[in-house]
Amino acid sequence: MNMGLSYLIYRRHAKTRHGIHSPFIYDLTERVLRSSNRLSNPEIEAVRHTLLNDDTTLTIRDLGAGSKKKSLDQRKISEIAALSASQPSVARMLQRLADHYNLGRILELGTNLGLTTAYLASAKSCRRIISLEGDPGLAGLARQHLESLKLQAEVLTGSFEELLQPALENLSGIDLAYIDGNHRKKPTLEYFHTFLPYLENHSVIAIGDIHWSSEMEDAWSAIKDHPAVTVTVDIFYVGLVFFRKELSREHFIIKFP
Predict the structure, then answer these.
(1) Rounded CA Rg of the chain
(2) What pLDDT score does 39 carry?
(3) CA angle 153-103-217, nearest 5°?
(4) Which of 7, 90, 127, 243 has the most crowded CB, counting CB atoms within 10 A?
(5) What are phi and psi of 163, to 5 degrees?
């Protein structure tokens, strides 16, 4: 489905806090999703501004589905920052999500330039973050940016298939996982199923670009149907997956930002 059409459908069905009856989702909307809580990190956004104006060309080794708008191996850093990095509103939301639910062990699939990694590493709750990136050039830049921001994050380079299991064992469980590096149905579902033994009742999985393609929408539908999942929240740019057994099984579409 065309993303523009998907967005129109999303906006038609998305609820605001006034249409929500679940106390858990109302709290999530108030404390994590609402635009009034979208505080910026000036240091991280200064790095983003620099990257958006950097016309240096990189040779990208893309192990995922590639960019929706660019599939070239040679790409400018400014284009990567504009087209492939998570939006500031999404990155800040993930930071608030981690802090609100005290999610300390964080795993990110798809470091890119390290901007979202920086927001996650900035969360007060963050005790350890491991981020996986397939491209060595991007991983190297991400490490530089994180070092310049004086943030602690482990950026590992290689395919997710090679790195994921060791990373999970190293973390000894997941509090928050963010999948944003391979926009295809089969790998997304494989990552999700690999996470399952490492999840606890409070764990959250965030899946980027759930409406990026019909494949990703199919993957999102399959995840919603999984028996371990109790609550999902579709904010168009990201799907949030909860496993809390005390919650009634329900799926929400919430207006964001």
Answers:
(1) 17
(2) 64
(3) 90
(4) 90
(5) -95, -25
